[in-house]
Amino acid sequence: MWQSIKDKVKQKHRLTKTEALWLYEQAPAQDLYDLANFVKIQKHGKNIYWVNNRHINYTNVCVLNCRFCAFSKIKKDSPTAYNWSPAEVLAKAQESVDQGAQELHIVGGLHPDHPLQYYIDMLSNLRAQFPTVSLKAFTAVELIHFAQIADISVAEVLQRLKDAGLQALPGGGAEILVPEVRQEICGEKESGEQWLQVHRTAHEMGIPSNATMLFGHIESLQHRVEHLAMIRDLEDRAPGFFAFIPLVFHPENNALGQRLKKMTSPEDRLRTIAVSRLFLDNIPHIKAYWVQMGIDVAQQALLAGASDLDGTIAEEKITSAAGAQSAQGLSVAQMNSIIKEVGCVPVERNGLYENIP
Ligand code: V47
Ligand code: SF4
């Protein structure tokens, strides 16, 4: 199997789900990383992309209660609930743009009260104030929530947000798309089919996006491969993904973590990066999201198929609530040295993967 997979990869032939599962379960670790690195180098040479960005999590109030989530507050009057006004969002963005931010990554809980206009105002204020900064905002479940509140279609919501300045969607909320797992970990959330449909609609409207996979909880390797296949299939039908981002499940302060009390190993993280690179032949980048991978493992991932380290972040609330040491972000100097230390070439990009000179 190993030789035939290697031959297929070298001839740029697509791997099957059976082959991806074999790689996950049986390929010798270093050989797997080297093969994924070979593909990464074919696509991007020694370049590793990174972005000076800020994560803006505008509220933690959420009408849902996903079992892995340590960030959301169901009650608006909880002492730790918060909800920023468009002016507060603007002030947070200003702090980071003053330090060179090229991208704003904006996601939040599903607030019960905001009208669609709140989100339109948020984006149009940011667009007016920062005309050249990339605006990547709102996951599929947020967009569905806005559509329900405004009683219009997701396509109409996307059109209005695009008119206000939206340029790309983040990849959050995909979790595991396979119904039997999704039902257990976030049964109230939109279905996997709906997540795919929102991204398909966005791609068809010229709005690119990312895709994630939350792994290391109750899912099997087969579920992961099935999830990857659903993403690859969507990219074939409606191209528009920039990057695939494996997200490491963090167990603190959430119901799922209380039950499982475990985190996936560094080797499993690297194997996931490598299998993703080899299987997702049609997606430009695999992102080693250092916040969740851990900095050391993210660095090793740069030699195991990843071509993107994500960003400086500035302020991170979702994974740090679940136990990650990521609340403060990284400096530009740190991003550069993480990449250079493993012999790669840092390339600063914006949110649309355009190089920053
Ligand atoms: O959607 C929630 C996940 C996501 C936990 O598109 C958790 O460029 C681990 O999607 N343990 C948000 N993960 C992060 C995200 C993202 C990050 C960086 C870049 C991009 C991009 C997207 O975090 C959520 C959810 O899937 N999440 N709780 C947890 N306990
Ligand atoms: Fe709400 Fe998102 Fe947390 Fe689910 S993951 S409870 S939708 S904030």
Helices and strands in order:
Elements: H1 2-10, H2 17-26, H3 29-44, E1 47-51, E2 53-56, H4 86-97, E3 103-106, H5 116-129, E4 134-137, H6 140-150, H7 154-164, H8 179-186, H9 192-204, E5 209-215, H10 221-237, E6 241-248, H11 255-260, H12 266-279, E7 285-286, H13 290-293, H14 295-301, E8 308-311, H15 332-341, E9 345-349
Ligand V47 is lined by residues 68-70, 139, 170-173, 175, 210, 212, 214, 245, 247, 249-250, 254, 289, 292, 310, 318-319, 322.
How would you describe this structure to a colleague?
It is a single chain. With 357 residues, this protein is an alpha/beta fold. 45% of the residues lie in helices and 12% in strands. It has helices at 2-10, 17-26, 29-44, 86-97, 116-129, 140-150, 154-164, 179-186, 192-204, 221-237, 255-260, 266-279, 290-293, 295-301, 332-341, and strands at 47-51, 53-56, 103-106, 134-137, 209-215, 241-248, 285-286, 308-311, 345-349. A 3-stranded parallel beta sheet has the order 8-1-9. A 3-stranded parallel beta sheet has the order 2-3-4, covered by helices on one side. It has a 3-stranded parallel beta sheet with strand order 5-6-7. α4 (86-97) links the parallel β2 and β3 (103-106). α2 (17-26) packs antiparallel against α12 and α6 crosses α9. The chain is globular. The model has no long low-confidence stretch (mean pLDDT 96). The chain binds ligand V47 and iron/sulfur cluster (SF4). Iron/sulfur cluster (SF4) is lined by residues 62, 64-66, 69, 71-72, 109-110, 141, 186.
